[in-house]
Write a structure and sequence with these properties.
The protein is mainly alpha-helical. Helices cover 55% and strands 4% of the residues. It is built from 7 helices and 2 strands; from the N terminus they run E-E-H-H-H-H-H-H-H. Strands 1-2 form a two-stranded antiparallel ribbon. Strand 1 and strand 2 form a beta hairpin. It starts with a strand and ends in a 12-residue tail after the last helix.
């Protein structure tokens, strides 16, 4: 079974999402209940708050409304997938390399597939490669700010440049 049950009672097939099963209210509700950093923060900080921070940072720097909206929605697939931490993602890539002799990023592929479905369901223009890079830059900035403010020992080395 590849379906998840949403807050509103819909069933979303994560491998083949029907556009009429994806609702912005469900995405917002789910993301508001998913903790960042696997819950290791001193205070409650969820994926919805992170997404709003990314969007606010982009708006402050003069990004277009479309770019800001893509920043807001960049983690929307986590409504169905959960928030997998970067160290776990790296471990999965290494495991794939050891097991299969090449690096796969199945979680990233699934995230991208769901994001494309969400964008289509909301009748938005698809994200461009340049927008994706821009959003990633602000996502990492937000991660660094969050780590500094909310993790017990401050930022981790991966975020030192921010």
């Amino acid at each position: 079974m590849t379906y998840i049950q949403t807050y509103s009672g819909r069933r979303v097939n994560v491998l083949a999402p029907a556009l009429d099963t994806i609702e912005l209210d469900d995405i917002a509700h789910h993301l508001s209940l998913i903790n960042r950093f696997s819950g290791a923060t001193r205070l409650g900080w969820n994926v919805a708050a992170h997404s709003l921070l990314v969007e606010a940072l982009m708006a402050r720097e003069g990004c277009s409304p479309a770019e800001c909206f893509h920043g807001l929605m960049h983690d929307a697939p986590e409504f169905a997938l959960g928030d997998t931490t970067s160290p776990v993602k790296q471990a999965l890539r290494r495991l794939m390399l050891v097991q299969f002799g090449q690096e796969f990023d199945l979680l990233d592929d699934l995230h991208t597939h769901l994001l494309e479905a969400i964008v289509a369901a909301l009748d938005l223009p698809p994200i461009t490669g340049a927008q994706r890079k821009l959003v990633k830059r602000f996502d990492l900035m937000a991660c660094a700010l969050e780590a500094r403010e909310f993790l017990p020992d401050g930022p981790v080395p991966d975020f030192a440049e921010y």
